[in-house]
Amino acid sequence: MQITRQADYAIRAVLYLARAGKGQRVATGDVADAQHIPPSFLAKIVSQLSIAGLLHTSRGARGGIILARDPSQITLLDVVEAIDGPIRLNECVTGEGICVFEETCPIKPVWCDAQVELVRRLKSVNFAMLAQDQQTESANAIG
Amino acid sequence: MQITRQADYAIRAVLYLARAGKGQRVATGDVADAQHIPPSFLAKIVSQLSIAGLLHTSRGARGGIILARDPSQITLLDVVEAIDGPIRLNECVTGEGICVFEETCPIKPVWCDAQVELVRRLKSVNFAMLAQDQQTESANAIG
DNA sequence: CATAAACAGGTCATCCTTATCTGATTTAGA
DNA sequence: TCTAAATCAGATAAGGATGACCTGTTTATG
Q1: Where would I find the H helices in B1-143?
Q2: Other beta carbons within 10 Å of B42
Q3: B105-117, pLDDT tens digit by residue?
C-alpha cells in the first residue's frame, strides 16, 4: 500500500525539471545530485519516463533531459503510473473474473470507490502547481 | 500500491464470521473452504487477527474462531492494518526526518491529504454493514 | 578525433509475499 | 483415560519485487 521508491524519485526528478524552467535541458547527473537520487538508478527511471512520453532525452555532449510537455500538462498520476503501473488498491478491482465472489461481494465496491477517489486526487495535481508552491500548510497524516 | 492477498483473505474471513451470526463459533477449515483460502495460510492470518484482538480462538475439539466484538465495531481499516500494518501512501508520510526536503517539499501534503481521505473511508465501513449488504450498485473503477 | 553524455542491458543482494509442512499443545467427548 | 479435533508456533521454500551497481554502446559537440 505504498508507492515505490522509484516512483518517488521520478516525481522529484520531474519536479526538478519543472522548476528548471521552460526549454531548459538538464543533465541527469545534476538531477541526481540535487534530489539525492542514486545516479545509476535514476538512469533507469529516466528511461521509463522517456518511454512513457513524459520527457525527451538527447544524447552526446551537452545532452540531457527535458520535459516533453508543459508542466501544467503533467499530473502526479501520470508520473506514478508511468513507473508503478496502474493504481490498484486490490486485485479484484483490476477487472472481471479475478474473484470468485465478484457478483455478491460487498467489499469490491468499497475498493472501487476508494480507488476512483485516489486517482481523481492524483490527477488533479499537476507539476506547474507543484513547481511554484513552496510547502503549503496542510493536514499532516500522522495520528 | 495494493493491499496484500493476506489482507484480502483476512477481510473475507472476518466477513464470513460476521455473517455466521452472533456467538457462532466456526472452524477455520470451514472458513477456508467457504472463502477459497489456502487452509494452512489462513491459520497464520487468524493468528495475527487474534493478536490484534479482532477475534478469539478456542482450541481443542469443537474449537474454532469467533469475532471478539460486534461486527459493527470492526472496521475495514481495523482488519487491513492488523495484517498489512499502518497505511502509508509514501515513505515520507511516516513521520519527520525521513525526507531531506521535508520542509520545502510541495508533494508531501498531497500524499498526506490523500492518505487521510483513504483512511477515513476505510474506517467508515464496518462489518455489520458488509454482512447485511449484498453487492450494492456502485461505481466501477475500471477505465 | 576526443570527450561528454545518454542508452541498453545484465547482474546482484535483499526483502516481501505467498504458501506449505511439521510437530506441539489444548480441549471435548466417548 | 483415551482419542479425535482443532488451534498454535515455527521452520522452510519458491518466486517476485525492490533498490542498486556496473559495463559497454551510441551519439553529439567542440
Answers
A1: 5-20, 28-35, 39-51, 76-84, 108-123, 127-132
A2: 23
A3: 999 999 999 999 9
Distance from residue A84's CA to nucleotide D16's C1', rounded to whole Å: 15
For strand D, give the nucleotides within 7 A of a protein CB: 3-11, 17-23, 26-30
Query: What CA–CA distances, in Å, run from A129 to A97, A141, B120?
Result: 40, 21, 26
Q: Note the pLDDT tens digit of each residue in A35-84.
A: 999 988 899 999 999 999 999 998 888 888 999 999 999 999 999 999 99
Nearest to A36 by CA among B97, B110, B93, B101: B101
Mapping DSSP to helix (H, G, I), strand (E, B) and coil, where does residue B26 land?
strand
Rounded-to-integer distance, Cα A48 and Cα A8, Å? 14
How many angstroms separate the CA atoms of A105 and A89, rounded?
A: 16
CB of B27 under 7 A from strand C?
Answer: no
Q: How many residues does chain A have?
A: 143
How far is the CA of B99 from the CAs of A41, A64, B5, in angstroms? Answer: 18, 26, 30
CB contact (8 A) between residue A1 and residue B5: no
pTM above 0.85, yes or no: yes
